[in-house]
């Protein structure tokens, strides 16, 4: 019998520690590294390398598609090997090594290759990391743990652009030199993952345990329950209306927000995301996952309707702030619900499908949104997104509640 993990605990006190704190620190550093580069990458591609806007879309779309597919595979595999940590460390290491190489890229094709390998790292680590995080706390604190992790991730998205701002304007670095700076928080993220993320004992299937040399107890891994797929289906519909945030920035520019203020608008949004994620996740522990997710999606619909009707720059600032709260309400609750709906031995697979299906759904979401914007205008496109969010919220609120057997601790 494997030693009991923190899944067996029923403590109700909360203080982020152990894997919760370690994984949050890793995500904070990784996102800081990524966001040093991400806001400047489109300008670098078009302005410095001379690529087309279509190539920019191809690079990002292909990168996210690769990550989505790999998340399914890595989640499935992490349920069948004795340790998830090697996959997590490998994923962060691959991304941290390759991401700064954008600094030496001479063509859009080279950037595409770098971004693909970067997203391979993300695809490898995502589902095993979330499964390990779910195992770090009892079910009664799961929403708060995922909310805290998302808060750290969004805090990194605040720090990264601020580092870029200081390096470019105060230190006088070039964009290529700045991209090398991204290697520093990336390396620190890998170091924290290696030293501080711990692997709790757990049960794995017998054949895989023998193959990997593990001594874990042998059990069969059952298929994901129907309640899991009933919970995921409305999320897919919501994602089809949740296009890339680049369209929000474009709309803000239309409303008269100065180009020089766009990065500050982005930082402000992530500040709200970070501040609201832990309280939102904690609230889902008290009143349930579904009410928080439904409320978040309804608020999303209101924000998108607001963008459709907005007429002044201050409208954009207000809507971006409220938009950040959407993620505080829904992100931690969504991940906690995924963990609630399956048994511990299935969590890698469950998070793999969650990330993979939603990642693939995000691709047509942005393509269709952009096509509708071009054909009928921004108001129609944002109205479409709002409508899909409302339908998804209604669908999730009407799905049958899962049985207690599936809501494992």
Automatic annotation (TrEMBL):
It comes from the Bacteria. Its main location: membrane. GO terms for cellular component: membrane. Residues 19-404 form the Major facilitator superfamily (MFS) profile domain. It is a multi-pass membrane protein. It is found in: Membrane. The keyword Transmembrane helix applies. It comes from Gemmatimonas phototrophica. GO terms for molecular function: transmembrane transporter activity. InterPro entries: MFS, MFS_dom, MFS_trans_sf, Sugar_transporter_CS. Keywords: Membrane, Transmembrane, Transmembrane helix. The keyword Repeat does not apply. This is Major facilitator superfamily (MFS) profile domain-containing protein. The chain crosses the membrane at residues 151-172, 178-197, 292-310, 316-333, 353-373, 379-398. It holds the Pfam family MFS_1.
């Amino acid at each position: 019998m494997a030693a009991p993990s923190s899944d067996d605990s029923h403590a109700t006190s909360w203080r982020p520690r152990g894997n919760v704190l370690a994984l949050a620190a890793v995500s904070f550093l990784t996102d800081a590294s990524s966001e040093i580069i991400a806001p400047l990458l489109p300008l670098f591609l078009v302005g410095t390398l001379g690529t087309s806007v279509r190539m920019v879309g191809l690079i990002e779309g292909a990168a996210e598609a690769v990550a989505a597919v790999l998340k399914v595979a890595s989640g499935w595999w992490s349920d069948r090997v004795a340790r998830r940590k090697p996959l997590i460390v490998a994923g962060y290491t691959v991304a941290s090594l390759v991401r700064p190489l954008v600094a030496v890229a001479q063509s859009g094709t080279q950037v595409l290759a770098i971004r693909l390998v970067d997203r391979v790292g993300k695809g490898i680590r995502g589902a095993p990391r979330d499964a390990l995080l779910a195992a770090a706390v009892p079910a009664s604190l799961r929403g708060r743990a995922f909310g805290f992790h998302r808060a750290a991730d969004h805090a990194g998205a605040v720090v990264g652009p601020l580092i870029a701002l200081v390096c470019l304007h105060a230190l006088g670095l070039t964009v290529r030199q700045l991209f090398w700076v991204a290697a520093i928080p990336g390396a620190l993220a890998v170091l924290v993952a290696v030293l501080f993320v711990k692997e709790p004992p757990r049960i794995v299937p017998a054949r895989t345990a023998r193959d990997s040399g593990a001594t874990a107890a042998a059990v069969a891994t059952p298929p994901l329950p129907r309640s899991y797929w009933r919970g995921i289906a409305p999320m897919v519909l919501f994602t089809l209306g949740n296009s890339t945030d680049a369209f929000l920035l474009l709309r803000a520019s239309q409303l008269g927000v100065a180009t020089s203020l766009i990065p500050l608008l982005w930082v402000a949004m992530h500040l709200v995301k970070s501040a609201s994620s832990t309280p939102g996740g904690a609230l889902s522990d008290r009143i349930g996952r579904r009410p928080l997710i439904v409320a978040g999606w309804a608020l999303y619909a209101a924000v998108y309707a607001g963008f459709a009707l907005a007429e002044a720059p201050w409208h954009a600032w207000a809507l971006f702030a409220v938009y950040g709260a959407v993620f505080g309400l829904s992100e931690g609750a969504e991940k906690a619900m995924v963990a609630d709906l399956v048994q511990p031995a299935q969590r890698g697979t469950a998070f793999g499908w969650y990330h993979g299906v939603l990642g693939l759904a995000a691709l047509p979401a942005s393509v269709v949104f952009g096509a509708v914007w071009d054909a009928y205008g921004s108001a129609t496109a944002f109205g479409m997104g709002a409508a899909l969010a409302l339908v998804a919220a209604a669908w999730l609120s009407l799905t049958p509640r899962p049985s207690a057997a599936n809501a494992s601790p």
